[in-house]
Specification:
Layout: H1 2-14, H2 18-21, E1 29-32, E2 38-43, E3 49-54, E4 67-68, E5 73-78, E6 93-99, E7 103-106, E8 114-115, E9 124-126, E10 145-151, H3 164-178, E11 182-186, E12 189-190, E13 203-207, H4 214-226, E14 230-235, E15 266-267, E16 272-273, H5 280-297, E17 301-304, H6 307-311, H7 335-351, E18 356-359, E19 381-383, H8 386-397, H9 405-413, E20 421-423, H10 428-431, H11 438-443, H12 459-478, E21 482-486, H13 515-519, H14 525-542, E22 551-556, E23 561-566, E24 569-574, E25 581-588, E26 593-595, E27 616-618, E28 629-635
Parallel strand pairs: 10-11, 10-21, 11-14, 14-17, 17-18, 18-19, 19-20, 20-21
Antiparallel strand pairs: 1-2, 2-5, 3-6, 4-5, 6-7, 6-9, 8-9, 12-13, 15-16, 22-23, 23-24, 25-28, 26-27
Helix pairs in contact: 1-7, 3-4, 5-7, 12-14
Keywords: Glycosyltransferase, Transferase
Protein name: 1,4-alpha-glucan branching enzyme
Family: Belongs to the glycosyl hydrolase 13 family. GlgB subfamily.
Length: about 675
């Protein structure tokens, strides 16, 4: 806290104010001046000389030198042409030539647009100065987040790189229909290596040109806002690509410009460079980078990737976090990185009060999502990363009859009090090559042949369909204060993700999302899509994510039953693989009449329609499991095999009455 306040005081004193310092994208790189001139400013402390070359001077290397300034800064002014037009035209190619014992052609760290031709190995810096900049408006911050994690390039069933325009026209309407109120865009910052999934950033101020132009991305954000959808950006400030010619690495000819020198500046597992967060100019660069994406493109917040690597000098490599405070406080903590994250959150929340920040941290650092004035790091949410790992571990290693209800609920509810979490059953991590989506773990090769509604469900498909719904609803309703889904997984996308690379002959077969599956009426993917949609719309209406912690009343290991209340809804889950229950008593806080709100056994969701949807339940003043009221329900097993069971009740939940009656919210298992 003191270090953060000290850094702020220095910025106010030496940089003309915090606001000006964090908007350095308006003074670095290339800037249009009054009268049509252009001003170039760079920070290259290790360079002996700096020059600008490009289309504008027929690539003359030494004809346009920068002038050295204090603290390793360099400036160059180019007057307008005789007709008053800028000396460098829109879409012209440029390079910075840094001389440090050799000629080094570089891209400005502040470049706003870079592209690569098919016959080129590296990217080119393209001067982006369109005549009519794009404008947009923002929606209000949602009360809770239902996030649709998305990658523009794979957002199409075609075996190709999809575009911003495709996402705007084809994906955003799906997101809206599904009831997600937020998209989280991955791989937007330019990255030379497509298969890095956007996590080896080369150009921090440039939107990836492989998907389209900057204006195409602005149109995407604007359209999302018009639909009431908040837009978050996946931000990678934890490391940078080691590329030199089209990245930040060795920009001035040294290994210490932007990064730590020597081995401290290299991530041994990722093969990337690590920022020197204690550097004044690195702070300028990274804080201004955050503001650039908010100011220029209209993003509403950020998911900060790889926070664990930033927080600790060991970067989390080979470390098992036990939960002891000694894991989180000591000389192994990188205080410069901690202060930088505090400054990042201070900047965003001070200047943009509605801004949303999410931390990806596997360590469980205390205070990550507490206010900065309390000594916290100031994030709004943290990702509940243990939850998807738990589901994958269960599906891979545990028989259905051995599922541990206590362990599942503990994993879903084990979060730091007062620190909000984004929970998810699976994200892009679980779908990457080497792993599989939940649907593929559940149904595997049968998804290729047995997902048609024109044939009877096989036992594998039946089990997979039902568990897919239950896992997602339990995670959604019990696991956090926000929810995340990776694109396509809402309808049980099969297989895995694998980007084109030498190892797969540069194939795009697995680098796509097969929305055509959900668009085909006779395939069961539509049923999973419908359940996900109605689950989100139910949350939107009743607001369980923003209602506080759930109260678990039944956690029966033998019966494999979980019952809990949240947002005045009652959720009932039966995970038993073979036993259905009739006249099963469940506890409720509120007396009244309950009715079914969501029933996973409905035919439209791939269920068997064995539950009477209009059934109503009246509570009795019979205390049960530390609740003052209770009633009897009947519900079915996950893989309903006992055809003699007559009492089939969906999992239910009670909602705040709109008509004087409590609503039973079914999260029934089939």
């Amino acid at each position: 806290m003191n270090l953060k306040m000290t850094r702020l005081a220095w910025l106010e004193k030496d940089e003309g104010g915090f606001d000006q310092f964090t908007q350095s994208y308006q003074s670095y790189g290339v800037q249009m001046q009054l009268g049509g001139g252009l001003l170039f400013r760079e920070w290259a402390p290790g360079a002996h000389a700096l020059f600008l070359t490009g289309d504008f001077n027929a690539w003359e290397k030494l004809s346009n030198p920068f002038t050295p300034k204090a603290f390793g800064k360099w400036e160059l002014s180019l007057p307008p042409k005789a007709d008053g037009s800028p000396a460098i035209q829109h879409l012209s190619k440029l390079k910075v030539l840094s001389i440090n014992g050799e000629y080094l052609f570089r891209i400005s760290p502040w470049a706003k647009y870079v592209t690569k031709t098919l016959d080129s190995v590296t990217y080119d810096w393209i001067h982006w100065d369109p005549p009519h900049p794009y404008k947009h408006q923002r929606p209000l911050r949602p009360r809770c987040l239902r996030i649709y994690e998305a990658h523009v390039g794979i957002a199409s069933p075609r075996e190709e790189i999809a575009s911003y325009k495709n996402f705007t026209l084809d994906v955003l309407p799906r997101v809206k229909d599904l009831g997600y109120n937020c998209i989280q865009l991955m791989a937007v910052l330019e990255h030379a290596y497509y298969a890095s999934f956007g996590y080896q950033v080369t150009n921090f101020f440039a939107a990836s040109s492989r998907f389209g132009t900057p204006d195409d991305l602005k149109a995407l954000v604007d359209e999302a806002h018009s639909l009431g959808i908040t837009v978050l950006l996946d931000m990678v400030h934890s490391h940078a690509s080691s590329n030199t010619e089209d990245g930040l690495n060795h920009f001035d000819g040294t290994d210490s410009c932007f990064f730590h020198a020597g081995s401290r500046g290299e991530h041994s597992h990722w093969g990337s460079r690590l920022f020197n967060y204690g550097s004044w100019e690195v702070s300028r660069f990274l804080l201004s980078n955050l503001r650039w994406w908010v100011d220029e493109y209209g993003f509403d917040g950020f998911r900060f990737d790889g926070i664990t690597s930033m927080l600790y000098h060991h970067h989390g490599i080979g470390v098992s976090f036990s939960g002891s405070y000694s894991d989180y406080f000591g000389m192994h903590v990188d205080e410069d990185a901690v202060v930088h994250l505090m400054l990042s959150n201070y900047t965003l929340h001070k200047l943009y009060p509605e801004c949303i920040t999410i931390a990806e941290d596997v360590s469980g650092m205390p205070g990550l999502c507490r206010p900065i004035q309390e000594g916290g790091l100031g994030f709004d949410y943290r990702l509940a990363m243990a939850v998807p790992d738990k589901w994958i571990q269960i599906l891979k290693e545990v028989k259905d009859e051995d599922w541990d209800m206590w362990n599942i609920v503990h994993t879903l509810t084990n979060r730091r009090r007062g620190e909000d979490s984004i929970c998810y059953a699976e994200s892009h991590d679980q779908a990457l090559v080497g792993d599989k989506s939940l649907a593929f773990w559940l149904m595997d090769k049968e998804m290729y042949t047995n997902m048609s509604t024109l044939i009877a469900m096989t036992p594998v498909i039946d089990r997979g369909m039902q568990l897919h719904k239950l896992i997602r609803l339990l995670t959604h309703s019990l696991g956090g204060e926000g929810y995340l889904n990776f694109m396509g997984n809402e309808f049980g996308h099969p297989e895995w993700l694998d980007f084109p690379r030498k190892g797969n002959n540069e194939s795009y077969r697995y680098a796509r999302r097969q929305f055509n599956l959900v668009d085909t009426e006779h395939l069961r993917y539509r049923q999973l899509y419908a359940f996900d949609r109605d689950m989100n719309h139910a949350e939107d209406e009743y607001g369980w994510l923003s209602s506080g912690l759930a109260v678990v009343s039944t956690l029966d290991q033998a019966d494999k039953v979980i019952v809990f209340e949240r947002a005045k809804l009652l959720f009932i889950f039966n995970f038993h693989p073979s036993i259905s229950y009739s006249h099963y008593r469940v506890a409720v806080q509120h007396a009244g009449k309950y009715k079914i709100l969501l029933n996973s056994d409905e035919v439209q969701y791939g269920g068997h329609g064995r539950i009477q949807q209009d059934t109503e339940f009246c509570s009795e003043p019979l205390a049960f499991r530390n609740r003052p009221n209770s009633f009897l329900v009947s519900f079915i097993s996950v893989t309903f095999t006992d055809c003699k069971v007559k009492f089939l009740l969906v999992n239910s939940s009670n909602a705040l009455p709109k008509n004087g009656n409590h609503t039973i919210f079914p999260s029934l298992l089939m």
